[in-house]
DNA sequence: CTGTTAGCGCTTTCAG
DNA sequence: CTGAAAGCGCTAACAG
């Protein structure tokens, strides 16, 4: 029960009657240390059950081998898939992941970012809170020299690193699919208008309609704040139109779930009176008796992995002390094409 | 662009022509420092945008204000609900959460535990990997003086701290419900036999049958390894019996999802030919047209919060240096009753 | 190849 | 009320 009596290099040095620096070097396989000494040191370290005190190393090296991941919510399937892959990647590099959920609250987000800064994380992966409009933290982190990679919810700025998913390709496929099935009344339940993700979807929606020679009906675009009530209301708005649409693209699966409930509550039948396609983030369709017609896959796991990869590149670059300020890395963006998958029906 | 030129207490001391110790004390509101000095120090610190270097503090204080959370999977709803609450709780105490997913692999689990030990976390919350049979890490962590709280998947040992959910109450209610609806052919799709959680469920299942005067039919208890195939196979085993059961309790929602698919694939109808109740961990029933009859709620969020609470008690206790070894805290367990909820049908 | 020395930033006795 | 000095455990010039 050698409580708290963790051995240190000093202890090893004393027992071996050599200096601490030699011990340190031996332990780190420094080439300049003789093979025999190295062996002796390692052997004793083993015996004593020596473990380096990383807090000392962190302190000394100004590096923590820790990255921060900040997400709106840890309990949404999209994000848990992403973090799962991030953790995986980090783990393979012997990095540790620290975690924060913003709950889409900008204040909370800022607080988490500060905590992470204070913990001196080596980098941050961030999916911004939906309601964040001011991105002061970008400046804060830049000053602190902490690299950041965004994904999913990416601020509409140039000088940032991000994994973005091209929402347009998937939307086009969705509309094409609907059109080729003969649908003309195609509606769109979009998310909050201020989100880049909403704008992009909407543009793509309109483009795709035009492409298919379907005239745009403004009533067919409705908005939800993504709450259950918002989703339901938006859906009812569509259902109550004199000319009810027969096909609906929606912002994401959560919206679709509520929408389908609303549809049923009105005595209509999914996949008969009305068809759905949505951006995928909830992997349950295979279990539903009447799933949407298809999903636009956004590959959250892949996005997470790519974000991690990009972040580690930035970290490595920093570490290899590019003293020159070319290190002001211009924002780099990797685009991931969304695409239609899972023809459920 | 004061790159890397974070001000230190030394800097403040110099400018104010006082000693670093005074600065340190002032910053920490030490009572022995004069009000005026304290003010001056704080003011300058503010101006310089001083931020204490936590890595130095961690090093000095042998405390990292970080807890580790290790879960089998980050992408299962049950666990994301739990971690979400843990993060919440930790956040409110200004602690940081570091994260690891074992993917139910004992080796990986051990590796993560070592990483966390090395990062000197102040405590760990752990839901053990399903396949872990050897709990050497308990000893390791005890020696390292890192308190641990288990939840959900808890080793069957006495000297550990844990939040356990009493699976029996819920099972009893489930069987009672089935029985009161007139079901006599009640089956049980259990998880891997070696799990404490499976054993407990099975005991409760048998007890409850007896209680309701229903004779036990051994064929009505089947097992799955929780894979999709395992779930399907187990279900088919039941369906193919000469006397098909009319009601099924299953290990958890994921099992039920696959089971319901299997049932449908055989041309049977859920909630007509066969009824389901399962331990809840997947919040989607409200969206299903034919959900299970009810769910046995296990309150993952609450379990997480309780685990965090218990862990912080242990940490605080340690910190208030109970040098005496009464600190060999006997295992304490908090039991959470599972109960039947969501009468979906 | 190895030892000496200094120091990371902060806290904390011990003396005033 | 304040300062001087030591030290946490480790690394890294700089000397041999």
From TrEMBL, chains A, B:
GO molecular function, one term: DNA binding
Keywords noted in UniProt: DNA-binding, Transcription, Transcription regulation
SUPFAM superfamilies per UniProt: lambda repressor-like DNA-binding domains, Periplasmic binding protein-like I
Keyword Transcription: yes
Statement: the UniProt record of this protein carries the keyword Transcription: yes
HTH lacI-type domain span: 7-61
Entries under InterPro entries matching the protein: HTH_LacI, Lambda_DNA-bd_dom_sf, Peripla_BP/Lac1_sug-bd_dom, Peripla_BP_I
Residue ranges of coiled coil: none
PANTHER family, per the entry: HTH-TYPE TRANSCRIPTIONAL REGULATOR GALS, LACI-RELATED TRANSCRIPTIONAL REPRESSOR
UniProt name for this protein: LacI family DNA-binding transcriptional regulator
UniProt source species: Olivibacter oleidegradans
């Amino acid at each position: 029960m050698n409580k708290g009596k963790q051995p240190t290099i000093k202890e090893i040095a004393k027992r071996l009657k050599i200096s601490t620096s030699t011990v340190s070097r031996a332990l780190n396989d420094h080439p300049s240390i003789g093979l025999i000494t190295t062996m002796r040191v390692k052997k004793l370290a083993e015996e004593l059950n020596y473990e380096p005190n990383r807090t000392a190393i962190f302190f000394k090296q100004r590096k923590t081998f820790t990255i921060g991941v900040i997400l709106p919510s840890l309990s949404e399937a999209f994000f848990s898939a992403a973090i799962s892959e991030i953790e995986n990647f980090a783990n393979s590099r012997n990095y540790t992941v620290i975690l924060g959920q913003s709950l889409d609250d900008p204040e909370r987000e800022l607080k988490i970012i500060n905590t992470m800064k204070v913990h001196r994380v080596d980098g941050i992966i961030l999916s911004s809170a939906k309601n964040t409009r001011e991105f002061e933290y970008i400046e804060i982190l830049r000053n602190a020299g902490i690299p950041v990679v965004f994904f999913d919810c990416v601020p509409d700025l140039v000088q940032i690193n991000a994994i973005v998913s091209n929402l347009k390709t998937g939307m086009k496929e969705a509309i094409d699919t609907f059109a080729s099935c003969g649908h003309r009344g195609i509606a769109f339940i979009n998310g909050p208008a201020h989100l880049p993700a909403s704008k992009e979807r909407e543009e793509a929606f309109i483009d795709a309609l035009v492409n298919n020679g379907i005239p745009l009906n403004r009533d067919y675009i409705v908005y939800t704040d993504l709450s259950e009530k918002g989703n339901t209301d938006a859906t009812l708005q569509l259902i109550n139109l004199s000319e009810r649409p027969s096909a609906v693209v929606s912002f994401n699966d959560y919206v679709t779930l509520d929408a389908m409930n609303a549809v049923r509550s009105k005595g209509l039948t999914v996949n008969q009176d009305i068809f759905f396609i949505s951006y995928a983030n909830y992997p349950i369709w295979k279990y539903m008796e009447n799933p949407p017609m298809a999903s636009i896959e956004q590959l959250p796991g892949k996005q997470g992995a790519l974000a991690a990869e990009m972040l580690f590149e930035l970290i490595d670059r920093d570490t290899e002390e590019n003293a020159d300020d070319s290190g002001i890395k211009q924002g780099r963006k990797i685009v991931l094409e969304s695409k239609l998958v899972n023809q459920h029906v």
